[in-house]
Amino acid sequence: MPDTDYSSFKKALAESKNIVVLAGAGFSAASGIPTFRGAGGFWRQYQATDLATPEAFQRDPVLVWQFYQYRRQIVMKAEPNPAHRIVAQLCSSSSKLAKIAPLATSFRLMTQNIDNLSTRALPDGVSPSALPIEIHGNLFQAKCTVCGLTEENHQFELADSWDKNQEQEQDADTQVKPTVKDLPHCRQCGGLLRPDVVWFGEEPHRLDETADIITKECDFLIVVGTTGAVTPCGIFPDLVRDAGGQVAVFNLETTYNDRQANFIFRGPCEETLVEALS
Ligand code: BJW
Ligand code: ZN
Fold this sequence. Notes:
Layout: H1 6-14, E1 18-23, H2 42-45, H3 48-51, H4 54-59, H5 61-77, H6 82-92, H7 94-100, E2 106-111, H8 117-120, E3 133-134, E4 137-144, E5 150-152, H9 162-168, E6 193-197, H10 207-217, E7 220-224, H11 236-242, E8 246-251, E9 263-266, H12 269-277
Parallel strand pairs: 1-2, 1-7, 2-3, 7-8, 8-9
Antiparallel strand pairs: 4-5, 4-6
Helix pairs in contact: 6-12
The structure holds ligand BJW and zinc ion.
Organism: Tetrapyrgos nigripes
Binding site for Zn(2+): 144, 147, 186, 189
GO cellular component, one term: mitochondrion
């Protein structure tokens, strides 16, 4: 049976050397960012295959860009929540880390979220090693579909946001549907840009590096606010357990990773994680 006691968790953490936090959509839920699969999640209302696959982008790049523009607008108005902040402190301050894990030589965040909130929670001027590994990319990066150039992109040039467009579907006369020429294009070759995020069937970012950290270094994995339904992150807890490490799950609900968990804390991570890591 997994342990649910904060004191036992803190004791195990204090003996760990390489700690990794693996975050999913629930990590940002308290900031008002919609999740994918839960109540109110995107995939309840829309087909993932219409929006988050390379085929969807080929079929209707305008619709897919509108979806990401809509999400950019939500994220721009959002603020990091207490879960982002406690993790940011431990990633960026060795003295704070030493208080809860005196033997630790690393505390890293791997996030499936593309919302940039974990980076925004960090103090200015942190070393690159404190930055999150964004396994599924970043909402504010775009990649050229022709030459592959990747760059920051905050453009908001679409005539309409995605949700408004959905609402207007019933009233086609008033609908102003943007066209491909309204989408962002590459400054180097003129090719169509796409959001630099990882869609189903695509290779996650920094896969070799994350696989190395998970299989060769991590001895304590903290899994926060993710279903564990999506590979490769869904199998990271198995890999850590196989290598002799420990796993703690923080989630509102049961997850696919509960069976690998040494510790389970059920509840909102913006509260439970702060309690566990303070
Ligand atoms: C709280 C909370 C609170 C809420 N406190 N908790 C069949 C066909 C095709 C592909 C496959 C297939 N079978 C398997 C695959 C592979 C596929 C996959 O896993 N599919 C499954 C769905 C079946 N995976 C891939 O394709 C991946 N690529 C890959 O494996 O490549 C291999 C490769 C290697 C080498 C070369 C080439 C290839 C890529 C997956 C990409 C996923 N992309 C998305 C979209 C990203 C961009 C975007 O954001 O738009 O990533 S989908 C979506 O799911 C998003 C998320 O990051 C990801 C995971 O979601 P997550 O975090 O679990 O969120 P939710 O919403 O599902 O759950 C929220 C959780 O939080 C819940 O548990 C709540 O209870 C909890 N919660 N509030 C604590 N306050
Ligand atoms: Zn280009």
